[in-house]
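#dry-run=false #mode=assembly
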Amino acid sequence: MLNVLSDTVTLSRLQFALTAIFHMLWPVLTTGMAIYLVIMEALWLKTRNITYYHHARFWTKLYVLNFGIGVATGLPMAFQFGLNWAPFSESVGDLLGTLLGFEGTMAFMLEASFLGIMVFGWERVPPLIHFISTILVAIGANLSTFWILTANSWLQTPAGGIFANGKFIVQDYFQAIANPFMLNSFLHMFLATLETALFVIGGISAWYLLKKRETEFFSRSFKVALVALIAVAPLQIFLGHLSAEQVYHYQPTKLAAMEALWETVPANTPADWSVLALPSNQLEKNTWELKIPGVLSYLLELKPTLDSPVQGLKEWAPNDRPKMVGMVYYSFRIMIAIGMFFAALMGITVFQWWRGKLTPEMMAQHKWLLLSWVFAGPLGYIAVECGWIVRCVGRQPWIVYGELRTVESASNLPPGVILFSLSGLMVMYAIFFFVTLYFGRKIIAKGPNLTLPAPRTVVQPTLVTEPAQHIPDQRPAEASQS
Amino acid sequence: MQPLEPLQHFLPQVWFFILGLFLFLYVLLDGFDLGVGILSLTAGGEERRSILMTSLGNVWDANETWLVLMGGSLFGAFPLAYATILNALYLPLVLMVVGLILRAVSFEFRENAENKTIWNLTFGAGSFLAALGQGFALGTVFEGIKVDELGHFAGGIWDWLTWHSVVVALTLIQGYVLIGSTYLILKTTGELQKTHYRTATIATWTTLAGAVFITVTTPILWDHARDLLFSPPLVYVFAAIPVLGLTLIVALLRSLKLRQENAPIIYTFLIFSLSFIGLGFLIFPNIIPPSVTIYQAAAAPSSLVFMLTFVGFLIPIVLGYNIYNYIVFRGKIVAYGE
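#status=ok
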């Protein structure tokens, strides 16, 4: 343990892991929820049914709370490459810096600027402008997903140039952007944010339905989330499968760690799929294991026996393969289990709906179903974090797979200094986590404001034609969001 | 001479300018956010503090994003500078990030809290820490960063901390307070506005004191600055800046005395621009002062062109919708219940 605390690389890795894992918690919700808000506002403008306006306002409150923490915790991410990973930044900056620069100009700015109008602008701009702002916020958030996943995919499957003297020279930018992992990884993450947000919305709605509060209101959000999930949940499993297949083709060390596979399975033999195992790094084997015969060959190639061998971890020297096999192995399984549970829950609920059992009056009778939804609420976060752990811990010992090692990439900082920033961030983040939960609970306990009148820009048609600029900034301080 | 050679000079220069623009917009815009944040520590009463925070509610996030833009673009355009500068300034930049985080979460937490005391404090303290961290970073611009022959950081982790950088940091904080109070003059009315006429006047004098001190000590303490300052053609620029600066300060003080509402922030912006231009001339063509040039630290020309194609195309659009945002929310903030 003391070794860890005096090792610059390990401390920098810990700090990156902590800040990335904690940061992920907020945008994963807001990115998906932004699309949900677009849907609600579209329904409001189309039907002029005030319920949808109240939905937009209520969910926006949770959105803003999460967004603020997301922006705050994103800052260390933007600077950490230089702060803690100077050699890495210099080596791949030509490409990675470009991609992050794009993220800033295309995505962050769009999101940040139009968020003001989206949150505070209901009374100040015409409905169409407000709707466009909401759409732009959603586009900004998802563009950010795109650039981050592009950058990260390049670390997984570098393309578009060569490494010369430890520096990456870009030869073809579009090839680097369209690296082998890019499309699939982006789509997988795009659906992950959507699925997480939909289950959070569904879970919170289910909680209200269980409590028999605002039943009609929350039946609606529950069903909007459910309808979206009919497409999202199964598609996500399919994309997850494609991602794993790509890992098999491009990152054999990661696949071996994901499956805790120590010995190579030769071609033309069936590969077993391990369900549970106790991997041991010292003994280079699983001390205990539960396997289903032949399943891995089906998973990877849809055939009873494999055409090409699946390489085991022992093919590589200990320094050339991931060390934390157990962590990668279990994170992978937890993610899969949650994805399957989500799809099953969606299926059962749709079935009940189809039988006509989900009218607002009958909702509260489905106690177990609703409880399952409440339980599912936070699971999306866990699945996403596990997925990223598989992706990035499984990539070790490489920071750029096959090209640049993590140990060679850290800044030469005194360990005490990193320990200082790491512990400071840890304390701060721990406090934020509980405070956000507390305030989130408070917003939920208070519930939606169903008496809120529609914005003046909509109710009084005379004001719609009036340019918004003539209205003074009369946002009452404090009550500005409610 | 190879056909592309002029480009290898021109492209880093363009990016130096773009990064300067991003940083400048950040300093102006988040400058008033941070200034208002620091001032909120002394605002008596919840109602006043609420007005202060409401005046930033819709803009702080976009303003802060200029810094992220700057960081991302520096990483892409001058990877060596990004790596070396951030490495050298680890502690002040962590301080800044922590401050900005505290400032950001305070907005959301305060909004939802019944007892707002803690979040008032974290908001003000966060703004102060962020400004302090930036001040130390600015101090290092004068001080310079110790590098080896490859341009990698070769100094100590506390190099940024000197008596001179402390003065620079305190001056920057004064500057932010000045810009924050002129923003509040623009956005508020009545007693609150009157208070900030006073604050702005005091901050003008303290900023001026710091600025004079820095201007005088810079050529005394650093040879390279002296050589630069007193040789043509730059000597004309550096002679003009103090004259123009003092004129603007007089105009600012006069507008504050006359209780003008829009003029003070405009004069303050101009004073900031002037200082910024001066700094730009002092640093150019270096990107890691005092010795690593933009040409040494630049990414490959293809990178710079590729980035320029997209970022350059987006800059006017980004500026456009930022301005639109300010137009939508222009006017005075009124207190709750009025």
